[in-house]
Amino acid sequence: MPSAAQTHERHARMLARYAELALSLAEQLHHDAMTAETPGERAEIASAFHRVCRSGRQSMALEAKLLRDAQREARAEADLAQAAQDKRIAARRQTLARAVERLIWTEVEDDDQAERLEDLDARLAEEAMSDDFLDQPAEAQIARLCRSLDLEVPSPLAGEGGGRSPTDEGSRSGLRTVGGAPAAEAEGLQPGAAPQPTASGGHLLPQAEGASWEPLDFDAAPTTNSS
């Protein structure tokens, strides 16, 4: 069964051809009328000429309507595609915002959090304008945002986006340090062993000094700093 687009194309071709035939017939009728020998013959031919011209005008009007309908459908499809794209961009921005906001709540002093959150919003808007925003891994984007906001990059993300996190120095596995010793040793892990991702696929989030690593859940709501 032909699709709607194929049917529309076939109808458009038929209308265009019909308009051409009507024009050709009208030209012949005009010639016949001008060479008619009697007024009666000329009047009869003129009446036929009028009907053919009317049919040709209707064909052209219908052809124009089909074109407008096709353009309207194309705009509607483009609008739907753009709406879906905007929805995916908004979802990615929300994922990135939640991940970085948690770091701001835990790492930044209370008096500076509002300004840092404004900076995050501005940088997210800039990131979202990139043509490949949705093609980039979210982990690399989070790492880049953390570096631009002077936040500690969670160690599983420290290698994302190029470069090293400022906290990589002094740690053999890219972890933060506690009391001058690698966090892995301070928290009872084997030296040089990086914490593993959780079974749920989360990432490990660096907490305040003396605290253990916990999963970084991109979908969790941010928690305020109790201090």
Task: Walk me through the structure.
- With 227 residues, the protein is mainly alpha-helical.
- It has a domain at 4-81.
- It has five helices and four strands; from the N terminus they run H-H-H-H-E-E-H-E-E.
- The strands form two sheets. A two-stranded antiparallel sheet has the order 1-2.
- A hairpin with a 2-residue loop joins strand 1 and strand 2 (181-182).
- The longest helix is centred in the first third of the chain and has 69 residues, at 39-107.
- The radius of gyration is 35 Å and the shape is rod-shaped.
- The relative contact order is 0.08.
Q: What best-fitting shape do the alpha-carbon axes yield?
A: rod-shaped
Biggest β-sheet description: 2 strands, antiparallel
Overall SS class: mainly alpha
Rg on CA atoms, Å: 35 Å
Q: Which residues form runs of ≥5 with pLDDT under 50?
A: 161-216
The CA-CA distance between the termini, in Å, is 68 Å
**Helix count, DSSP H or I runs of 4 or more residues:** 5
What share of the residues does DSSP label as strand, in percent?
A: under 5%
Main sheet: which strands, in order across?
Answer: 1-2
Mean pLDDT across every amino acid position:
75
Q: What is the number of E strands?
A: 4
Strand and helix order: HHHHEEHEE
Task: Classify the helix fraction into a percent range.
Answer: 55-70%
